[in-house]
Amino acid sequence: MLGFSCAFRKRALESIGVTILERVSSPISEEIISFGPFNSNTQKRWKKPVVTAQTRLEDRTRDLKLDKLMGHFKRLKIVLTLVELMWNRRGPYVSVQLISKWRNIVGVNIGMGVFLRKYPHIFEIYTHPTRRNLCCRLTQKMVDLIKEEALVIKESEAMAVQRLKKLLMISTGGMLHIHALWLIRRELGLPEDFRHSILPKYTDIFTLVNPEIVALVSRDESLAIADVEKWREKEYREKWLSEFETKYAFPIQFPTGYKIEKGFREKLKNWQRLPYLKPYEKTEVVRVRSCGVVERFEKRAVGILHEFLSLTVEKMVEVERLSHFRRDFSMEVNVRELLLKHPGIFYISTKGNTQTVFLREAYSKGCLMEPNPLYVVRRKVLDLLLLGSRNSRELRPLEDLPERDANLVCDEERCGQPDGDWVIPILEGASESWSDAYQASEEDNNVKFDDGGIHDDYIKW
Questions:
Q1: What would the pLDDT profile of 215-242 be if each residue is shown by its tens digit?
Q2: FRET label pair with 245: which of 41, 80, 340, 352, CA 20 to 30 Å apart?
Q3: What is the C-alpha to C-alpha distance for residues 370 and 389, in angstroms, rounded to an integer?
Q4: SS3 for 219?
Q5: What is the 3-state secondary structure (H, E, C) of 3-24?
Q6: What is the DSSP track for 347-416?
Q7: How far apart are the first and last CA of the chain?
């Protein structure tokens, strides 16, 4: 009887095991098996990651120098907006109470009084002698730089007209929208009122098709030379490279830490040799079914963007403002994605809540390699901002300094007296009194000196 029960249990366990194995190993099962330890080897199809402009932007190699420079430009943009609001006022000063109402316009998230005191070399805060309220005005240094920038813009008017003319030559129909040009007026070195000062003055070059579009009267083929072509000629002469290697090449400078994948060098070499329609060329015979039409079209867009940035004063511009020229330049591409596909030529910085593209070859260690007069003046303004609260004592006149500042210890070169000399007159004046007190103490046998001090009578003295 006992043997029969053991055999029955053994058969039951074997049947249960067979059932479990059939359910696990059966290729066709009506039930949906969830992920677990028994089906860990089942195959699953994963979607291939999509490479978009956003993923390229997140995975790009950062340029710390240009990002740091763009962080400074973020603060400079806020300061210049506030300076412009103050400069357009009639009076020489503005009350701090009124400036506090401009917080949303300027984009400041702290108190305006605290913000203004952070830059004493730009803003001067004082109490109005009559109204007895806090007022703010621009310092003389900042006023001089504003006037100097306006003078440089006026003197370099011919260069600004040449930049505008070359942009019109790049456009497909020789026409551009005035609003798009107004957005990049600072980048091109144009005055604020260029529509009423520059365009009517040069009627032999520009003409208004309608109130919103400016057109080019006649082309100047002597200006139809891209900036990159000058670099190619220099490379051809100095480095003795073949014309095949340099005729359609671009200067490539990858950021520090850029990872070069397998096969990337060969692709880059083939792309550098790929012929394309240059920015100032208008006619070309292209076969529809020819090899590399899309690549040639994209390379033409790269050449246009390269020339566009070369024409700017500081070799940089916001990516959003580039989109206003897509149709005028016949660039039916995603501009941001195209810029990110060529990190050796362009760099997009996301500092300052905006995306700004730099021409990489034009910068070295965060500074422009070939500065121009307008860039030099704007750099002085940036240096004034970066100075912060340092050397702020130089801004205070001598008569306004309190008397306590005159008694401070100073060195021999500034004050003509070494450290510690202010103590000597005090000791000399008190030496006679101390000698009389000591003689009196010798005569008085009841007076006792201890290690910690003197008698209370002499303390009162």
A1: 999 888 899 999 999 999 988 888 877 7
A2: 340
A3: 30
A4: coil
A5: HHHHHHHHHHHHHHHHHHHHHH
A6: EEE-GGGS-EEEEGGGEETTEESS--HHHHHHHHHHHHHHTTTTTGGGGS-GGGS-HHHHTS---HHHHS
A7: 122
* Tokens encoding 236: 């051809």
Tokens of 433: 């009194």
Beta strand segments in 256-306, E: none
9/7 Cα distance (integer angstroms): 5
Region 6-25: what's the mean pLDDT? Answer: 54
Cα(384)–Cα(394) distance, integer angstroms: 13
The rounded Cα 131 to chain-centroid distance in angstroms is 41
Token duo for residue 55: 């993923």
Beta-bridge mates of residue 127: 134
What predicted TM-score, i.e. pTM, was given to this entire model? 0.73
Cα–Cα distance for residue pair 430/10, rounded to 1 Å: 115
Average pLDDT, integer, range 76-90: 89
Lowest mean pLDDT across 19-23, 162-166, 214-218, 421-425: 421-425
Q: Is 120 exposed, middle or buried (0-12, 13-18, 19+ CB in 10 A)?
A: buried
Is residue 178 pLDDT above 60, yes or no? yes
Strands of the sheet with 94-95, listed across from one edge: 94-95, 134-138, 123-127
Model confidence at 111, pLDDT cuts 50, 70, 90, reads confident
The model's pLDDT over 373-417, given as tens digits with 9 standing for 90+, comes to 999 999 999 999 998 888 666 565 433 434 433 333 333 333 344
- Taking the C-alpha atoms of residue 163 and residue 158, their distance in angstroms, rounded to an integer, is 9
* Residue 168: partners with Cβ closer than 8 Å, 6 or more residues away: 174, 175, 176, 206, 214, 215, 216
CB atoms within 10 A of CB 160: 20
How far, in Å, CA of 32 to CA of 421, rounded? 94
CA atoms within 13 A of residue 427's CA, in its CB half-sphere = 5
Q: What angle do CA 347, 352, 358 make, to 5 degrees?
A: 20
For 261, the 3-state DSSP assignment is coil
Residue 45 is predicted with a pLDDT of 62
